[in-house]
């Protein structure tokens, strides 16, 4: 069993864990981060996409609001290229016309220092013509839209460049707990390589639990009780950029009251429901309908637009001694649990709660405390250290199209909906450990557009198979050369920029023919990335999971076309290697048994396991 | 006055119109597009997998029909006798031959072919265009699968590797796309049209001859010519000195569009008027009869009157059925009753590739033994002069059981025969 040694072990590859690894590495610590699936597998990859100005929480939860605006200012510098500067409106809809909330909102923003300007309704309608014309007041705040996949990759790349090792598809199964000297101490963890199945021991002086909604499970491995209050939220993606500004309703936070423009779509969200299991999330039809109905109040007609897909994430909410019923009432403020003083467990910290927007601050607090325990004084440097790529400035809606046209890459497109070129896909797969196509979806937005993978799934499978045949994909093992990845010419910073991935000596110039060897499986068929049949099945299933809750109208017809392609033309349900599974095969399955749930009642179906 | 208006120009509509024209009716087709012809593999799949047990492909679809019909008495195939099925398929074979795009089946009559799919799975098909026949997996010659470097819709190594896993000897090779074109942004239909030019075919032939080993057969993506497809194929075979076959791939489908074009041209020669780009949005009925259907145009709705109407709009895929977020699903023109689970939560199963398919796609228009849409409660025809055929029909999921073209052809022909009184219904 391989054993690795480090000073700091970080558990969780979401925004928070990535931030901790980055912060600690910049302070000169030896760092290993483990994530059980791909980066952003957890809530970070399933959130609403908003860089909060703090406006949403300013009345109800001013502490969290203050954290948000503080970090909003910093992220715009450190992660500039992961952010689209959309700005945000808080609008007063007819339903709230009589409420005193807008005045309280404005006063609270002033108090905390959130820039908030009331603008004329006519001006707001000029900038957002689809907005409900019956709104009575509009406040402008510095909300923004962010790409959390890119941001987390960029943070992790910055951590790597500072020497951190990142092990994805490595799941913590046990903590190494030492009870000698009458003192309990966490000395690292035992993790399982989810691809090879091998166990790896990681010894560490300090273990930082950044496992989000799973943090309670990790803490339990050390014998500490941490009661995360998992609040599930569902979001619905619409096919068009119906608004270009983040639109919030000016009222106490509730269901379906924000619309966020994200790249080519807008997302309406969210609900907030207590759930039992953060892993298997069901999306109930009523949730989708509620989002559409609430969305109507902000953008009339939105429910008739084409719905692309729905997804859900779980808020890792934490409040010491919370006794309320509604997870909306739990603070959004961050929580650092100091297990040495709280539970008498040395060498172990938990950082949870908070928002995506506050991940950097959460990391700072956690690593500050780790320094105290390790008896060293090293100041935090993240607030002044932009991650690679930030010099590009904020991204904008048309940047991909612009780059494609400028470099004349139309012929290279693998995914026409999201403008992903072959070179982008190849570079992402080659330089970033890839196990499933879903990993590449997060990297380059493969399959996230209107056809939901109908065309690009086959192409991506074919391309990855060709790469594997040439042995050009990155292996994912503890021994994989991290230095090489850290210093590779490929920069995470440009992951999503087609113009940065142009081949010299384009294949157009390849004039000879190329004969390949006899057909035999090119690499180990159990390694998912080199098994095209597994890649294909898993990705089709992943897409299915996201579209089922929203299949009607044109999207239902699209789905039938995808069936014609993958069943009728490809016969993909009768491919060899039917028995093989990837670490994610189970995860893509879901339960469609109708639940008798409606808003307000405790959803009985939530507790069910995905039917295998 | 027009005697029959067929709504829909997929395979169902074309076969129905052809049957009507042969019976001497004056017939028009009105359609939005060309239906599934744009997308499918260009073969005629009659029954590829048994819906209740889809592990192994069906060997003899016409024989398996009896089992299917016994199990599922509502299936569209239950509305036709085995002889009618045979006759319908023969009518298609004759028409395709006349249209210059012959289709054939296995050398062993009645058997399904097994052809390589673009991921290298073995897809069952009953009839295939000439250009796909040499790909039959039961033949002995080893395969050379050839792709083009930089072409995004075909992956020869993937095909060869998967065929290898199923015991078929196959290897892969690439040719430069510049043999066909220097433009990289071309889809397969555009490439096929470029290969109508003999010089390009000659270049391709020379390159292939350098690759192929004696005794091998050569598989290529389906781009071998469009208008001149048969000449292109014949001349390549001659130049290369080996059997050559096409593998259909992602839409737009070259074999499907070739078939549509050839059949439509033939029908027009027989006097059928085909008007596409016209979406039928509504109708007017009186006294249990449809008087006219309406299409939208820029200026005002156009009325199209006829004595009889045949609905061949192809269900969800063809755009014949619509649905909304409240879970409603309806037939878009005549608002015919559908046999569908009305509860949205029962439309789908947890797996995309579920061996039993998705329940929502079993739904459709219930018809009587004469292919007339009926009110499910009374069993009586909804309109005295309305018929329905193809993928609109209830109680089958043709994509799942691989019967899409079979159901289209057989019911398209039979519905018109029933309409003109040229048959005895199989059952009711
Ligand atoms: C519906 C919804 C909408 C939201 N919208 C916004 C928004 O618009 N703006 C905003 O700022 N915030 C938003 N949030 C909050 C924000 O998304 C989260 O606070 C943040 O992403 C949490 O990040 P994290 O890294 O702490 O947790 P996660 O991203 O969940 O990361 C935890 C990681 O730990 C891994 N892990 C778990 N167990 C193990 C194990 N045993 N071994 C190894 N790894 C393990 C998981 O796979 C996971 O990747 C939203 C949250 C939800 C639910």
Quick summary of this structure?
The complex is a heterodimer of chains A (612) and B (428). With 612 residues, chain A is α+β, with helices and mostly antiparallel strands. Chain A has helices at 15-26, 62-78, 101-112, 121-127, 148-161, 215-221, 285-298, 339-343, 359-374, 399-406, 422-431, 437-444, 456-469, 482-487, 532-547, 553-569, and strands at 3-11, 31-34, 50-51, 83-84, 88-92, 117-119, 137-141, 144-146, 165-167, 170-178, 184-193, 199-209, 229-238, 246-249, 258-262, 265-269, 273-274, 307-317, 334-338, 345-346, 348-353, 413-415, 420-421, 514-518.
Report on the structure:
Among the domains of chain A are: 83-143 and 230-315, D-Amino Acid Oxidase, subunit A, domain 2 (D-Amino Acid Oxidase, Chain A, domain 2); 398-505 and 522-574, no CATH class. Chain A is 30% helix and 21% strand. Chain A contains 16 helices and 24 strands. In chain A, strands 1, 2, 9, 10, 11, 12, 19, 20 and 21 form a 9-stranded mixed sheet that branches. In chain A, strands 5, 6, 7, 13, 14, 15, 16, 17 and 18 form a 9-stranded mixed sheet that branches. A 3-stranded antiparallel sheet of chain A has the order 3-8-4. The longest helix of chain A is centred in the first third of the chain and has 17 residues, at 62-78. Chain A is globular and about 70 Å long. Chain A starts with a strand and ends in a 43-residue tail after the last helix. Chain B has 428 residues and is an alpha/beta fold. Chain B has helices at residues 11-22, 61-71, 82-98, 130-133, 156-165, 188-194, 198-211, 229-240, 254-269, 315-318, 404-419; strands at 4-7, 27-30, 49-50, 53-57, 103-104, 113-116, 122-125, 128-129, 143-149, 170-176, 217-221, 244-247, 273-275, 280-286, 289-295, 302-305, 308-311, 321-323, 329-331, 386-388. In chain B, the strands form 7 sheets. Chain B has a 5-stranded parallel sheet. Chain B has a 4-stranded parallel sheet with strand order 10-9-11-12, with helices on both faces. A 3-stranded antiparallel sheet of chain B has the order 14-15-16, with no helix packed on it. In chain B, strand 9, helix 5 and strand 10 (170-176) form a beta-alpha-beta unit. Strand 24 of chain A pairs antiparallel with strand 10 (170-176) of chain B, so a sheet runs across the interface. The complex binds flavin-adenine dinucleotide. Residues 11-17, 34-37, 41-44, 47-50, 52, 171-172, 210-214, 218, 233, 235, 269-270, 313-316, 354-357 of chain A line the site of flavin-adenine dinucleotide.
């Amino acid at each position: 069993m391989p054993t690795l040694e480090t000073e700091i072990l970080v558990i969780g590859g979401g925004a928070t864990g990535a931030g901790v690894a980055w912060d600690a590495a910049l302070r000169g610590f030896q760092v290993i981060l483990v994530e059980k699936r791909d980066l952003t597998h957890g809530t970070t990859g399933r959130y609403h996409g908003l860089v909060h100005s703090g406006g949403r929480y300013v009345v109800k939860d001013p502490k969290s609001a203050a954290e948000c605006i503080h970090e909003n200012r910093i992220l715009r510098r450190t992660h500039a290229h992961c952010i689209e500067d959309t700005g945000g409106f808080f609008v007063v809809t007819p339903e709230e016309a009589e409420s005193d909330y807008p005045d309280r909102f404005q006063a609270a923003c002033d108090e905390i220092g959130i820039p908030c300007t009331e603008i004329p309704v006519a001006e707001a309608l000029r900038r957002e013509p689809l907005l409900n014309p019956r709104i009575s007041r509009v406040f402008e705040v510095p909300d923004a839209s962010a790409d959390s996949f890119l941001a987390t990759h960029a943070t992790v790349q910055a951590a790597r460049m500072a020497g951190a090792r990142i092990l994805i598809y490595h799941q913590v199964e046990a903590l190494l707990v030492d009870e000698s000297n009458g003192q309990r101490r966490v000395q690292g963890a035992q993790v399982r390589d989810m691809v090879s199945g091998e166990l790896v021991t990681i010894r560490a002086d300090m273990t930082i639990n950044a496992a989000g909604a799973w943090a309670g499970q990790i803490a339990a491995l050390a014998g500490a009780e941490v009661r995360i209050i998992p609040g599930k939220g569902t979001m619905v993606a619409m096919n068009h950029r119906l608004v270009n500004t983040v639109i919030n309703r000016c009222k106490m936070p509730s269901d379906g009251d924000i619309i966020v423009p994200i790249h080519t779509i807008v997302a309406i969200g969210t609900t907030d429901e207590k759930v039992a299991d953060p892993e298997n999330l069901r999306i109930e039809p009523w949730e989708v309908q509620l989002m559409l109905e609430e969305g109507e109040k902000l953008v009339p007609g939105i429910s008739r637009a084409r719905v692309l897909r729905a997804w859900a994430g779980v808020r890792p909410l934490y409040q010491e001694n919370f006794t309320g019923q509604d997870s909306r009432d739990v603070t959004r403020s961050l929580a650092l649990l100091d297990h040495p003083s709280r539970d008498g467990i040395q060498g172990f910290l938990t950082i949870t709660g908070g928002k995506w927007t506050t991940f950097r601050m959460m990391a700072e607090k956690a690593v500050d405390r780790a320094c105290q325990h390790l008896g060293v004084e090293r100041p935090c440097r993240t607030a002044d250290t932009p991650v690679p790529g930030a010099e590009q400035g904020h991204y904008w809606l048309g940047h991909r199209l612009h780059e494609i046209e400028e470099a004349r890459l139309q012929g290279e497109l693998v995914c026409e909906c999201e403008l992903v070129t072959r070179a982008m896909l190849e570079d992402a797969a080659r330089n970033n450990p890839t196990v499933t196509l879903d990993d590449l979806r997060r990297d380059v937005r493969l399959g996230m557009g209107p056809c939901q993978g109908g065309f690009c799934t086959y192409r991506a499978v074919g391309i990855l198979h060709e790469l594997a045949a040439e042995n050009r994909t990155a292996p994912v093992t503890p021994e994989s050369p991290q230095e090489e990845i850290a210093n590779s010419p490929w920069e995470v910073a440009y992951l999503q920029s087609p113009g940065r991935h142009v081949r010299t000596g384009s294949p157009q110039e390849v004039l000879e023919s190329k004969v390949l060897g006899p057909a035999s499986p090119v690499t180990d068929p159990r390694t998912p990335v080199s098994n095209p049949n597994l890649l294909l099945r898993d990705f089709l299933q992943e897409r299915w999971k996201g579209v089922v809750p929203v299949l009607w109208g044109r999207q239902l017809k699209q789905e039938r076309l995808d069936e014609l392609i993958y069943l009728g033309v490809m016969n993909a349900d009768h491919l060899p290697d039917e028995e093989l599974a990837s670490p994610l095969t189970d995860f893509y399955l879901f339960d469609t048994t109708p639940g008798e749930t409606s808003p307000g009642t405790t959803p009985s179906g939530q507790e069910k396991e995905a039917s295998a | 006055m027009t005697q029959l208006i067929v709504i829909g120009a997929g395979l169902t509509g074309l076969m129905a119109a052809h049957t009507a024209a042969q019976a001497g009716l004056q017939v028009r087709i009105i359609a939005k597009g060309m239906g599934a012809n744009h997308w499918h593999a260009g073969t005629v799949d009659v029954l590829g997998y048994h819906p209740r047990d889809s592990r192994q492909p069906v060997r003899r679809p016409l024989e398996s029909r009896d089992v299917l019909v016994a199990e599922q008495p509502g299936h569209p195939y239950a509305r036709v006798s085995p002889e009618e099925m045979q006759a319908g398929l023969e009518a298609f074979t004759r028409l395709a031959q006349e249209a210059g795009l012959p289709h054939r089946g296995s050398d062993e009559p009645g058997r399904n072919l097994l052809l390589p799919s673009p991921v290298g799975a073995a897809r069952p098909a009953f009839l295939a265009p000439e250009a796909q026949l040499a790909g039959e997996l039961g033949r002995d010659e080893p395969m050379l699968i050839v792709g083009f470097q930089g072409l995004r819709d075909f992956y020869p190594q993937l095909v060869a590797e998967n065929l290898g896993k199923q015991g078929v000897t196959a290897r892969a090779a690439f040719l430069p796309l510049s043999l066909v074109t220097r433009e990289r942004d071309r889809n397969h239909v555009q490439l096929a049209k470029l290969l109508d030019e003999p010089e390009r075919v000659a270049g391709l032939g020379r390159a292939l001859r350098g690759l192929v080993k004696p005794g091998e057969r050569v598989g290529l993506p389906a781009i071998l010519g469009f208008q001149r497809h048969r000449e292109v194929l014949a001349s390549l075979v001659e130049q290369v000195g080996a059997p050559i076959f096409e593998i259909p791939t992602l839409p737009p489908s070259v074999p499907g569009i070739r078939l549509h074009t050839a059949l439509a041209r033939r029908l027009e020669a027989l006097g059928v008027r085909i008007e596409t780009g016209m979406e039928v949005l509504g109708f007017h009925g009186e006294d249990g009869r449809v008087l006219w259907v309406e299409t939208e145009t820029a200026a005002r709705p156009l009325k199209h009157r006829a004595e009889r109407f045949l609905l061949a709009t192809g269900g969800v895929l063809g755009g014949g059925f619509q649905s909304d977020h409240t879970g409603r699903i309806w037939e878009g023109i005549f608002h015919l009753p559908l046999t569908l689970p009305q509860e949205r939560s029962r439309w789908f199963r947890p797996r995309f590739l579920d061996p039993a398919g998705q329940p929502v796609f079993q739904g459709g228009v219930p018809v009587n033994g004469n292919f007339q849409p009926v009110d499910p409660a009374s069993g009586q025809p909804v309109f005295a002069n309305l018929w329905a055929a193809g993928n609109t029909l209830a109680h089958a999921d043709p994509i799942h059981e691989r019967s899409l073209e079979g159901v289209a052809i057989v019911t398209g022909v039979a519905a018109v025969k029933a309409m003109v009184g040229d048959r005895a219904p199989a059952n009711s």
